[in-house]
Amino acid sequence: MAQDYSFQHFNVHFPADSPYVAHVEINRAKKMNAFFEAMWLELGQIFARLSEDPAVRAIVLTGAGEKAFTAGLDVQAASEGSILSSGTEGDPARKATHIRRHVAEFQNCISSVEKCEKPVIVAMHGFSFGLAIDISVAADVRLCSRDVKFAVKEVDIGLAADIGTLSRLPKVVGNFGWVKDVALTARIFGAEEALRVGFVSGVYDSKQETVSAALKMASLIASKSPVAVQGTKEILNYSRDHTVQDGLRYTGVWNSAALQTNDVSSALLSGIQKRTPTFEKL
Fold first, then answer.
1. InterPro entries, per this entry (predicted)?
2. Which alpha helices (H) appear in the chain, and where do they start and end?
3. Rounded percentage of the chain residues whose pLDDT exceeds 70
4. How far is CA 216 from CA 143, 257, 276, 277, in A?
C-alpha cells in the first residue's frame, strides 16, 4: 500500500487474497481490547484515511486474541484521568461545556465508522460489551461467533450510553422494547438472541470462521463497482434517517451524477459476455 497504516493500538493490513479489502484489528488483547482515549482517536484517524484510500473498497474490523472483540471502555484508565474529575473548580456551565466537547469528540471518532465511504463489516467474538455495541451499530454489517457475549453495560457504571448505542441500536433492530430491555438491565445476551432480533446477520462456530466469513463478504463487495457500493451505503444511511420521499429525492440527485459512470456499461457488458467486470479505483 502507498499509505503508511502503522498505529500503536491497531493492526491494519491488506490480505493478499482479498484485493481492495482492508482488515483492521483492535490490538490490545492483554487488556481484552478495552479502549482508552488514545485508541478511539486512532480509530477515527484510521477510518478517515481508509474512507479516502482509492485502493480500499471494503473493510473488516476485528479484535485481537481469543477472549474479546472489546470489553468496552477501560474503566481503570478512565478513572485515572476522568473527564468528570478535571476542572472541578469551574462553574457548572463551563464544566458542562468541557464535558460536552469531550463527548462530542469521542462520538465523532466512533461515527467515523459510519461516515466511512467504504462498507464496514464487524466480526465479533468473546466479550463484546459497551463500546463494542457503539462501534458495531456504526458499521454496516455485523457477524459474530457462537461464543460471543453482548451487553449494553453503561447503566452498570452509572451513566446512559452516550457514544451511539441508544441512537443507532433501535434503528438497527427495529424493536424499541428489546433495546430498552437490554439497555436498562445491562444483561448479557448471546449470539442466537442477537441473530433473532436482527442485531447480527450471521453466527459462526468460532472466531476464525467469523473473520473468514467477514473477509469473504468484504471480497465480494470489493468486486462490485465502487461507485455503486459507495452510493448504496450513502443512500441507505440517508434514507434511514429521513422520510421515503426525502430518500427518493436524494437518490435521484445522487444518481443523476453517479449514473454517468463507465461502471454501468462495464457491468452490463460483462454480464452479456459472461466475464468478471473490472472497475477503476475511486
1. ClpP/crotonase-like_dom_sf, Ech1-like, Enoyl-CoA_hydra/iso, Enoyl-CoA_hydra_C
2. 37-52, 75-80, 92-115, 131-138, 165-173, 176-185, 191-197, 207-222, 226-240, 244-258, 263-273
3. 95
4. 12, 30, 17, 18
d(CA 144, CA 223): 23
User: Would you say 93 and 57 are in contact if contact means Cβ atoms under 8 Å apart?
Assistant: no
User: Region 116-130: what's the mean pLDDT?
Assistant: 98
CA dihedral 190, 195, 199, 205 (to 10 degrees): 60
Pairing of strands 10-13, 21-26: antiparallel
Average pLDDT score over residue span 26-45: 96
Domains annotated for the chain, with CATH where assigned, are 10-222 (3.90.226.10), 226-273 (1.10.12.10)
CA torsion through residues 104, 107, 112, 114, sign: negative
Q: C-alpha grid cell for residue 174?
A: 427495529
Residue 66 has pLDDT above 70, yes or no: yes
Distance CA 57, CA 51 (A): 9
Rounded CA separation 30/190 (Å): 23
Judge contact between 215 and 18, C-beta under 8 A: yes
Dihedral of CA 210/212/215/217: which sign? negative
Amino acid at 25: E
Phi, psi (deg, nearest 5) at residue 198: 90, 10
CA distance 73 to 60: 21
